[in-house]
Specification:
14 helices; Heme Oxygenase, Chain A; about 325 residues; mainly alpha
């Protein structure tokens, strides 16, 4: 229904009645519809009029979908409390230490076959081909040290002003090296709901000023749990025959994110909580959302692979790494 609407010139329409189903992070219709709404704030879609971005009818639909997403998050992610006398930085470290997704990166490093690695890259393409963009929404909503810290992190994500060093460009090179289509959004119809949900919560937090604390915590969680998995991904890709250019995206994150972790936890999140104490638990919640969804993603992908089936909605053509 939504795609048909957007293929026409902007017009008023009534959003569908609320679903009677309990909201779920694994609801394919919910996650795809919301992703489409959000994508109009990024690069849009060919054939979709740009006036749709802020059209009242679409914003009403997006608000209804966001309400369902937020209820699904509340069901799936317990809201962490800041311990009495505790610091946001220390609590973020504690949350990251409880993260259980490391087994997934160990599997990729040691056991994944080429087609499983390619599937993993397709999942990640939904975010990595626009890496950093959702968190950049927070820059005009911050000030002082938190703002400077976020700009420092994002400058690295965008290659320090060199287009070929932008992380999204490095990831596109990885995709080409694996015989995958690096076009933006090429695999949107192949990925399942949980992959879209991972991207959607970034856009939810980024597009609403009230979620600026959650967005900061989300970024911190990504940076804190990045270096070791990316080292494992690089090792796994080399085991499968990946060359230096194909592995560069992962190599870059091993070093960069070790630095970003310190900037994000202390200069961004700790300082933001000091300036706006009411945001402290929002920061922790954003981190918990990032970690929980990644754990759900890892569990579901591994379940598919254990059962000998694709983790995508449709299998990829089997191709070797180009020599």
């Amino acid at each position: 229904m939504l795609r048909e609407r957007l293929s026409r010139p902007p017009h008023d329409f009534a959003p569908p009645p609320p679903s009677s189903r309990a909201p779920s992070l694994l609801d394919e219709d919910l996650q795809l519809a919301l992703f489409i709404c959000y994508e109009l704030h990024y690069r849009g879609f060919a054939g979709v009029h740009e006036d749709w971005e802020w059209h009242p009818s679409l914003l009403r639909l997006r608000a209804a979908l966001e309400e369902r997403l937020e209820r699904a998050l509340a069901r799936a992610v317990p809201r962490p409390a800041l311990p009495p006398g505790g610091s946001v930085r220390r609590t973020l470290i504690d949350l990251a230490e409880e993260y259980s997704g490391t087994a997934f990166s160990a599997f990729i490093q040691r056991k994944a076959d080429l087609n499983q690695f390619r599937e993993f890259v397709v999942h990640r393409s939904i975010y990595h081909l626009k890496e950093a963009d959702p968190h950049t929404w927070a820059i005009p909503r911050l000030h002082g040290r938190p703002k400077a810290a976020l700009v420092e992190i994002q400058a690295d994500e965008y290659g320090g002003g060199r287009a070929e060093r932008m992380h999204c460009a490095l990831f596109a090179t990885t995709m080409r090296g694996l015989g995958l289509d690096p076009s933006y959004g090429a695999y949107l119809d192949r990925v399942p709901a949980i992959t879209l949900a991972i991207s959607n919560i970034m856009s939810l937090f980024g597009l609403h000023r009230r979620h600026r604390g959650a967005l900061a915590g989300h970024l911190a969680a990504l940076e804190m749990t990045s270096s070791l998995p990316n080292a494992r991904y690089a090792a796994g890709l080399r085991r499968l025959g990946g060359d230096a250019a194909t592995c560069r995206f992962y190599d870059e994150h091993v070093q960069a994110d070790a630095v970003h972790e310190q900037v994000a936890t202390h200069d961004l999140c700790e300082e933001l909580a000091a300036e706006e104490p009411a945001l402290a638990e929002d920061i922790l919640y954003g981190a918990a959302c990032a970690l929980t969804l990644d754990e759900i993603f890892a569990e579901r992908v591994m379940e598919c692979w254990r059962n000998g089936v694709t983790s995508l909605r449709e299998p990829l053509p089997r191709k070797p790494v180009p020599s």
